Structures are given as structure tokens and as C-alpha cells.
Amino acid sequence: MTTPTLDAPDMTATLLEARGLTKHFPVHGAVRGAGRRVARRRGSGPVVHAVDDVSLALRAARVTAVVGESGSGKSTLARLLAGLITPTAGELLLDGRAMARSRRRRLDYAKTVQMVLQDPFASLNPIHDVHYHLSRPFKVHGLARSGADLDGKIAAVLERVALTPADAYLHKYPHELSGGQRQRVAIARALAVQPRVLLADEPVSMLDVSIRLGVLNLLADLRDSEQLAILYITHDIASARYLADTIIVMYAGQEVESGPAVHVTDTPAHPYTQLLLSAAPDPERVTAVTLRGAGAPPSAVAPPSGCRFRLRCPHAMPICAERVPPAFPAGDGHVSACWLLDAGPKSPAVTTRAGTPEPPAVSSCQLVRPITGEDAPDLGEER
Amino acid sequence: MSGDRLLEIRGLCVDYGHGPDAVHAVTDADVVLHRGEVLGLAGESGSGKSTLVMAATRLLRPPGVITGGAVRLYPAVGTEVDLLEADYDVLRVLRWSQVSLVLQSAMNALNPVMTIRVQLTDALAAHQPHLSRQDRHARAVELLEMVGINSDRLSSHPHELSGGMRQRVMIAMALALQPQVVIMDEPTTALDVVTQREILEELKDLRDQLGFAILFITHDLSLLIEIADAIAVMYAGRLVERAPASALFRAPRHPYTLGLLSSFPPLHGPRTPMTGIPGSPPDLRALPSGCVFHPRCRFAFDKCAVQAPPLAVVGASNDRLAACWLQLGDGPAPAELALREPDLTEPTASANGTQTSSGPTGRPAPTERPAPTGVPERAADHEEPVQQGSTA
Hints:
The complex is a heterodimer of chains A (383) and B (392).
Chain A: E1 14-26, E2 31-32, E3 36-37, E4 47-59, E5 63-67, H1 74-81, E6 89-94, E7 97-98, H2 103-112, E8 113-116, H3 120-123, H4 130-140, H5 147-160, H6 167-170, H7 179-191, E9 197-201, H8 209-226, E10 229-234, H9 237-243, E11 246-251, E12 254-260, H10 261-266, H11 271-279, H12 318-322, E13 328-329, E14 335-336, H13 348-351, H14 364-367, H15 376-379
Parallel strand pairs in A: 5-10, 5-11, 8-9, 9-10
Antiparallel strand pairs in A: 1-4, 1-6, 2-3, 6-7, 11-12, 12-14, 13-14
Chain B: E1 5-16, E2 23-34, E3 38-42, H1 49-56, E4 64-73, E5 81-82, H2 88-97, E6 99-102, H3 106-109, H4 116-127, H5 133-146, H6 163-175, E7 181-185, H7 193-210, E8 213-218, H8 221-227, E9 230-235, E10 238-244, H9 245-250, H10 255-261, H11 302-306, E11 312-313, E12 321-322, H12 333-340, H13 347-352, H14 355-358, H15 375-391
Parallel strand pairs in B: 3-8, 3-9, 6-7, 7-8
Antiparallel strand pairs in B: 1-2, 1-4, 4-5, 9-10, 10-12, 11-12
């Protein structure tokens, strides 16, 4: 039962793809006047720009990490990908097909795309034992033929998350398990239906430090042994670097940078990623920390024009306020939405820009490292 | 050394509950905080970090019971107050003016229905009744500006501030009476990494200006290594190691510290598989015999399961302490050395008294945390300031 029901997908086959995924939440009228609740009509009034125009592809046997601060839209993105909320705009393609609305197709989708939540203390029901939790997916999806079959399948899925011997855990209640064991049960529950995509929303942030790596290593094993496509959402860029193949950095609901994990963390191209890395705890750090761009994220209800990071950005230029930066290549499959990387008039993105000030004509490789170069903002004015 | 002691916790034992069912939350804890020092207290949840400081400041609530030990505060050179014996009136004066506390959840620590002004001036009014209303207001403005908040925020309520600002208000409140000891219990855990860094940098500046000592509690050892002068590591209610921060990082002496260090993926260098620590922290109601860490320890030998190791000086310098039979040279020595070799280089150095100099090369398990080249030199640079800091 542990054999994945896959047709040996190509190593880079895209399983789940998001194109221009956007989610805006209406801001409901606050309590005004004499305690009257004013509900606004749908489609009008202010909205929270939780996720704006995010595109990503989750591939088989790959871990994609989404890194960002709280409020950057990471969890909303996960809920969109899980189909728990409907996008305001954009497409969600599973195996190249758009998600249908019918209940039958919805169930099929849930069978392929499963989610693991942050807090295993809250995501497991305290009045039910492990056996009950793990029997639910089999029953909901009609995957067990008999009681014995169900028990066998539950034991097998516990083995997949290294909770062995299964008998020792079957009749335990959540309070009898440690945090790490609880999270493994939550992962087992997600794996029960043999999904091909696993969305893990901060799966280790509630766990004790010494057991986090065990859970991260489990996810890595599942990626390798079962060809799972994993979305790993985290605020900890070091753990993303450790586990992920690809890192996507989000800021204020938008994707600001993405690329191969080590490439993004070793040569961050976007000033926000550079800020995140300079703020992250690092015992190897020798020099004093200089935060370039400290401050708070902008309002999600009225985000700034152009680049949303520009108000904090140490390199902000006039163009940053005028136009939303597209994803510029930063080498090796690494892209960054920052005007600093604008390669000049040759770039197709720039030719569409009429009437804007003269673009900085500097090669992108010079600008990939404003992290060390104090002169980076000046480079744009060289010519 | 003893002259610059500020807060001294000796053999502190704290239980939750009475009799045979009591949970031993803290056992025999020795912590010494020196004047102007940043001492990090690291440990996982349930390791007793918060219980330890709550007991030491007599803020522990039932069913917590202090069952032994002594806590001495030295407000000035030559004066000594036993905090466990002190009357309520004495404590009332010492709290906040000598020892103040910053808690993790600023939202819960601040009163949601009172303005920042009221909460900031409350302690001033209680401790310095001679101050006029205007003086208190002026001081509140000064305090807020000290932590980088505009004074027009004085009339705000907590919900109108961001998480980082609330935590800054907490820090301003803690510093209101210029205490010598500021205890911070996971002060930045709920904050985003950039905000956390901003606050830590401010805290460093404030410490340099005002000269208070910080007892900084956190589960994030990698953060402590950067900000603390010295670090004490707790596990299951016991102190297992204490060392200057960089020495602890370069050459941990306790297997648990080593395991913790190899639980934080590095931000640099090649990616290599890391293991963390197998198993989970023990249930405090059913602690393992002997050394509490032995069931998870890959170096454990017979003695570890039988007898609990004391926290003892390792090597020549008095600032390195570890509670491990491997370090106390008492076990089957050859096997012990053979086991430790790949993890702690120059293991014999600890026995021979060249402890400090072994720091640079004593990088934790190269198989787990590859040190970038050039580490030895940097470590040597680090050693000096840390020792100065801990004795300043």
C-alpha cells in the first residue's frame, strides 16, 4: 500500500500550476456610529490584497519553499492552492487542467492535493485517537474495502512517517504524543489518500528545535521516495535553504524573487531578500548587522504603487513608484522582480515602456550583488 | 569574579505540585549573571527556562513550589539580598527598580483598555511618588523615544500598535526605572525576523548606554550565539552546559548542545544532511534515570543511565561548565575519547587544561555542520571580546 500510485512521472513534470493567482478579501465595514454593523456590498469598497498575481509550478519530486514575513500572503497562497478558497483572479491547473467546480471533481482534487497545517496541537482533535484520525481520509474517499483492509492501510501510512511499530501509536490520543509525533500523524493523514502534491504550511515552526530536522528530513524522504511535489511554507529562510529545491520569496502578497534555493540564498538579487538574509540569525556572522530597508510591510488594503518594497528599499528609484517590476533574470533560473536588474533597452520588458525615464543601462550581473556594493543605487545614474 | 556578580542562582529546585506526583520542572540550577552581561538561557519548551526565572523573581504561581536553593541579588557591591527569603515589601521595592521582566507576548502583557501613557507612567507613579505628573509624562516621552517610537503614540492603545512596537513598549517599560537586571523571556519569538533583528540591535545599543545585564531566554540558540556574551543550556529542568557564546558554538562540551547546534541549518556553505536529535524531550513526570539526556544521546554509556552527572568546570577556565560524564573523565576513558573525537576535536585538551585554546578548532561535528574555511581564525578573534564581556 505504500507504493505510490503514480505513472512514473517525469522528474520535472509540473503537477500543480498557478498562473496569476490573486486573492483579495473584502474589508467589511467596521463598527461605526451607534454600534451598527455596516456590511459592504460585495465587489465594492476596499479590499485586502492578500495575494497578487502569483505564478508558480509545483513539480514532482521537488520541494518549493515559499518564504516571507507574516502577512506576506504565504498561507493564503497555500489555501488557494488547496482549493479551500476561490481565487479572485488567476488560474489553478492540476495536470494542466483547470479545477472544476463539481463536487466529484473537488473530491478528486483533494485526493491529489493535500495539506499539512502549522499547529499539530490544533489540527488534531483531542477527543479522537490516532486510528480515528487516520481512518477518516480512507472513509471520506472510499478507499478501504473492509475493516481489516483499513487497519492495514493505517498501519502502512504510519510506517511511511516513521511512527513504528504502528500498534504503539494507533490508540494514542493527541495529548499522549509529542509535538513531533503529532505532526507526523498530521502528515500521515495527508499521505493516506496517496496525494501527489503536499502543501505544508509552516509544518515545523511549532515544534521543538531538536525535532524540527526530523520532520524536515521526513518531507525530504517523501519527496524522494514517493515523488511528491511539496510546497514548504516557512518564515525561516535557513530551513528553506536546507530543504527546498526552489525558493520563492514573497513580500506584501507578491512574489519578489524565485530560483534555485542555494542560488537565491547565496546571491540574493532582490533588496528584500537581502534584508531577510541579513536579519536572519547566523552564528557564523562576523561583521555587525546592517539592516538596509528596515521598517514594516505596507498596508495590504492600499499597497503602494509600483514595487511594494520601494518605501523601505535602500535602492529605490523613480521608476519603482511608476511601474510594477516584472521578473528579471538573475542567472541560473533565478528571477527577481526588481528594476535594479533591468538590463536596459535590449530587454523586451523595457521596450514596452514608453515615456518612462531613461532606464539604467547597466548589465544585470553588475547589479546582482548590491548586497555588498554600497554604490549599487548610483549605478543606475552612470549614464 | 565574585565581585561583579549581580544575580546568583544556586541549586534552585522547582516542582509543580506536591508529594510523589510532583513534576520536577527545575532541578539544581546554578546560574550566575554578572554586571552588564548578556546571558542567554537556551532550551526547548518544557526545559524549565521560564520556570527558573519566574521562581528566581518569586513570580511563580501555584502549583509551582520552590523546593530548594538560593537566589541572591547584589544591587550594589557589598550589598546582598536573598530573594527567596525577602519579605513582600522588600520584593516590591526591588522589582522593576532592580529586576524587570519582558515577556514574550506583548499583546497579553499590555492592558488592552489602557493607553500606553497610563501603562508607562504606572510604574513610575508607584516607585517614584515624588515625581509630578509632568515629570512622569516627560519620562514616558523619553522612554518611548529611547526605543524608537514617536511620543505621539503615548495616547494609543495597544491594539493600535504593530507587534514590534508593542514589544518595544514592553522594553521601554522594563527600563523605566533603570534596573540592573532585565529578564527577557522569548522577547522576539512572535516577531518577524526583520523586526526581531531591529529590536535586538536597539537592545544592544541600550545595553551599551545604560549598562544593565540581560538574562535572555529563548529556544533559538543560533540567535543567542550572536547576541549573548555567555550561554547556559537547559534540558529537562537541568543546566547541562554554560560557556562563553562563541566557545559554546565552536566547541560544545555537552552532547545536547552539539545536537542543538546541528539542528539549525546554516545559511552558508554546501547543503549537507543534518540529523537534529533523535527522539523527543522527556516527559517531566517520568524522567529517565541518570543523565536525563542519555536516551537521546549517541555517546551514552553505562554510567549515564545510572548516575546523574553534576555541572562541573571543564578544563582550566572557570567559565566553562558541563554536566556530562564524558567530560568529567570518569567513564571508560578510551571508548569515550574514541567516540568524541569526530565531534569535538582535541578532546584531550579539556582534560589537560587548554580548554580555551581548543575552541577555535573544536567545531561541532563536521559531518553535520560544515564550517566554512577560515573558521579557526575567526573563532580566535571571537574568543577575546566574549571573555571581556563576561567579566565586565
